[in-house]
Design brief:
This protein is of the alpha/beta class. It contains 14 helices and 13 strands. It has two domains: about 240 residues, Aspartate Aminotransferase, domain 2 (3-Layer(aba) Sandwich), CATH 3.40.640; about 130 residues, Aspartate Aminotransferase, domain 1 (Alpha-Beta Complex). About 40% of the residues lie in helices and about 15% in strands. The strands form three sheets. A seven-stranded mixed sheet has the order 1-9-8-5-4-2-3, with helices on both faces. A three-stranded antiparallel sheet has the order 7-6-11, with no helix packed on it. It binds pyridoxal-5'-phosphate (PLP). The site of pyridoxal-5'-phosphate has 15 residues, from helix 4 and helix 5.
Length: about 375
């Protein structure tokens, strides 16, 4: 039985009528850019995230870029972040002309280690950019303490973490900015690209809103140099429908994660794999269920799963400090050992909410058979 890593059709089918009605609604007004759907959706997402302000943008990448621009981060500035993330996190820091400073992660949660952040601070540090990887929040208490002591901005990369919580506070409501992605594979995925920025104060919110449309307000009067970072009305209409189902989908992922923890425990007890760790006082939304395969066997296990038609992926095979495009930053292999080991060991397996128990049994069976257990 083939099991895909993600089954977008299985999520769409039960809500097809709702989605199509929402799209039809857009054609009643023909407001494709801006308009009431966008503002309504922005209010709903901000509320869902527990943030006072929110701005729909064109992608998760642009959410990061426009937040860095709104914070006036640029040449001569340093931004501390994790190398164990999707490329956009580090790429955007370079794109505004600042220097990404990569520090190591905690091996249990894969998230940035606040002790390493503290050690990397210089007089050029302007912001900290933690990523809530795989749907679990970074240690925000420690990061907020470091940032507030030194007056640094916090930009949360919450692209994989909408609805995720740290001590009852939601991703995107803790830092100065929260950056979300509606890429189709995220827990809240659009029918194309889309993203969102939450802000916790009005001044930053106003800057992000302006920068999203070339820094103009009113139209054709430019006080800032921005770009076209707008969310389409059609995406907002679809996402508004999906937002109503999001907590249900989170629950599906949550119970699949629990079931994997039970079913895969024998492999973990034998030291063949490690299961993902849910840290205390977190609500994990399981954008990915990522195990570690030990003893250098990851690629071999991966090939066996592929041969059995079980979808899987390596997020991420090369940590950012070792990417060719960042060679001029001068990092060397061995410098951020936890990130490097994670890149060599991680393997993400199907976790989407619509995964049936028969399909999940198949994933477990094929994994065990790949280890000859
Ligand atoms: C998906 C993702 C992004 C980028 O989002 P896009 O919408 O694809 O531009 C940024 N950071 C992380 C951690 C992501 O997972």
């Amino acid at each position: 039985m083939p099991v895909p890593l993600l089954d977008i059709a299985a999520q769409y089918e039960p809500i097809a009528t709702e989605i199509q009605a929402a799209i039809a609604e857009v054609f009643k007004t023909h407001r494709y850019i801006g308009g009431p759907i966008i503002s309504r959706f922005e209010e709903q997402v901000a509320e869902y995230c527990g943030a006072p302000f929110g701005v729909g943008v064109s992608s998760g990448t642009d959410a990061l870029l426009v937040s860095l621009m709104a914070e006036c981060v640029g040449p001569g500035d340093e931004v501390i972040t994790t190398p164990f993330t999707f490329f956009a996190t580090g790429g955007c820091i370079s794109r505004v002309g600042a220097k990404p400073v990569f520090v190591d992660i905690k091996p249990d949660t894969f998230n940035i280690d606040p002790v390493c952040v503290e050690n990397a601070i210089t007089e050029r540090t302007r912001a900290i950019l933690p990523v809530h990887l795989f749907g679990q929040c970074a240690d925000m208490d420690a990061l907020e303490k470091i940032a507030s002591d030194r007056g640094l901005a916090i930009i949360e990369d919450a692209a994989q973490a909408i609805g995720s919580e740290f001590k009852g506070r939601r991703a995107g409501s803790m830092g100065h900015y929260g950056c979300f992605s509606f890429f189709p594979s995220k827990n809240l995925g659009g029918i194309g690209d889309g993203g969102f920025v939450t802000c916790n104060d009005e001044e930053r919110f106003e800057r992000v809103k302006k920068l999203r449309s070339h820094g103009a307000h009113p139209k054709y009067f430019h006080s800032l140099i921005g770009g076209n970072f707008r969310l389409d009305a059609i995406q907002a209409a679809v996402l508004e429908v999906k937002l109503r189902h999001l907590d249900n989908w989170h629950s599906g992922r949550q119970s699949n994660a629990e079931r994997y923890h039970t079913e895969l425990a024998p492999l973990a007890e034998r030291g063949l794999i490690s299961l993902p760790v849910q840290a205390e006082e977190r609500r994990h939304i399981w954008n990915q269920f990522t195990i570690r395969v030990h003893d250098g066997k990851r690629d071999q296990i991966r090939d066996a799963l592929k041969a059995a038609n079980v979808g899987n992926e390596v997020y991420y095979p090369v940590p950012l400090h070792l990417q060719d495009c960042f060679a001029q930053l001068g990092y060397e292999r061995g410098q951020l050992p936890h990130s490097e080991l994670a890149a060599a060991e991680v393997l993400s397996i199907p976790i989407y909410g619509e995964l049936s128990s028969a399909q999940q049994d198949e994933v477990v069976k094929q994994l065990k058979s790949a280890f000859s257990v």
